[in-house]
Amino acid sequence: MVESKKTEKKIIGAAMEVFYEKGRHGAKMQEIADRAGINKAMLHYYFRNKENLYRTIFKTAFSGIFNRLEKAVDFNAGFDIQMKQIIGCYIDMLEKNPKLPLFIIRELGEGGAIARSVVREYFDSGRLQLPHYLQKSVMNAIKSGEIVPIDLRQFMITIIGSSLIFFVAEPIVFSIFPVEEDFDRIKFLEERKKAIFNTLYYGLKPRKVST
């Protein structure tokens, strides 16, 4: 049983590398087996076919995202603190997993059927608490006058997009705005977190209407 779990973990690790690098259609089961240090027959024994393995990898990737967010956000904190925690979590996660954005974009570019299925399954399981608490936090912030009325979906799409764009377009960004020789990436990403927060949060603050 223990050995079986170890083998499965090795397969998932190897498959994640290959799918992240080459996408679903570019990945080969033989290469995944080779990287996992097993034969192809054993790979098929564990996951039957490439479709099942790909779905497992996508599910692992998305559950990792949601689990990190759930752990990063203090459900009892104020709206502004939760915003900082969500933005910080996304930036840190993308920095540690630079191939993740392209992996997801490839799936969505191919129609996103597996993405929709996996995400829907995860939400329907009832394990995800963040949307409920975030909705509550947003409503409290609106009622108190801290922010103007917003649609939670639009708000989250904006946070995700603002966090993601640098990692997707980094070569273009630094071609337009060349970095200095002593460029500090960690400092830059911390500044990026603050820039996203300041732009979004203060953009949601009620404006005084002059008379």
Number of helical regions: 10
Distance between the termini: 74 Å
Q: What is the H-and-E element order? A: HHHHHHHHHH
Question: What does the main sheet amount to?
Answer: none
Note the overall shape. Answer: globular
CATH homologous superfamily classification of the largest domain: Tetracycline Repressor, domain 2
**CATH architectural arrangement of the largest domain:** Orthogonal Bundle
- Assign the structural class, choosing from mainly alpha, mainly beta, alpha/beta, alpha+beta, or little secondary structure: mainly alpha
Radius of gyration from CA coordinates: 20 Å
The share of residues in extended strands comes to under 5%
**pLDDT average, as an integer?**
92
Instruction: Tell me the domain tally.
Output: 2
Determine the CATH topology of the largest domain.
Tetracycline Repressor, domain 2
Low-confidence stretches: none
Name of the level-1 CATH class of the largest domain = Mainly Alpha
The tally of beta strands, per DSSP, is: 0
What report would you give on this structure?
There is one protein chain. The protein has helices at residues 2-26, 29-36, 40-47, 50-72, 79-96, 100-109, 113-124, 130-143, 152-176, 185-203. It is mainly alpha-helical. It folds into two domains: 1-48, Arc Repressor Mutant, subunit A, CATH 1.10.10.60; 60-203, Tetracycline Repressor, domain 2 (Orthogonal Bundle). The protein is globular. The model has no long low-confidence stretch (mean pLDDT 92).
